[in-house]
Each structure stands twice: as structure tokens, then as C-alpha cells.
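stuck on whats below:

***
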Amino acid sequence: MAKAKAKAKKKTATFTKEERAAMKDYVREKKGGGEGEGEVIAKIKKMAKPDRELAERLHAIIKANAPSLTPRTWYGMPAYANADGVVCFFQDAGKFKARYATLGFSDKAKLDDGVMWPSSFAVKDLDEARIVALLKKAVG
């Protein structure tokens, strides 16, 4: 009986293949990998076409409007960081088999607005003006 409970518990606590891959990416990044624009471009090139095009455009928008942010990867995703850490990131739909891509902001982003505010956005297309405004607020 104890074995059956342990087996059942283990089964519910497992991660998906995609989650395990993201964790492996994170460990690699902590050991010094994932730094620089070359790593970000390489991750973007591996994405499926619709999300790859979004990520390429987003990368250009961030470079042009938030030059203080440094490209790097974060859990294997394109991300942009300052000295405090990752400020924003792009999660393609294929990363975790989601319905849509996501533009996310970490708690390092200065987006605080009252007692509740959005920190990630579903992305089907880019609203450049909105992204630029969010970036400017996020980096302060």
C-alpha cells in the first residue's frame, strides 16, 4: 500500500518534457550560459514561424527603446535584463504548448500601479506603441 501511494504521489509531481527542458536551460544559464545577443538570436531562430517573427520584431523594439537592457536567455526564453535581473521576456507558444505567445515582465520591472497590475500579456501581434510605453515604465 505504501508503495502504491508513493508511486501515485510521484506521478502527480512529475514535470512535462518542456518544463524539464526549461529547468535544464536555467541551470545552464546559472553556470554562465545564455548570456548575450547571440544566445537570444539562436533561441529565436528555433521558434516556429509565427512566433519567430514576433520575437524578432520584439527584439528590435526592445533594443531600440530600452538600450539599457541586456539580451540573455531565461529558462531558455529570450529575455532582457538590467543589473537587478531579468526585466522582461518572450515565451513562444511552443515553449509549453500554449495557445499563444506571451510577453512577460518580472518583478524587477517597475510596472507597479496600485494594488494590482498585469505582468504578462498574450501576444498574437505586437502593439508597438503599447510595448514601448511598458518598456519605458519597466526600466524607470
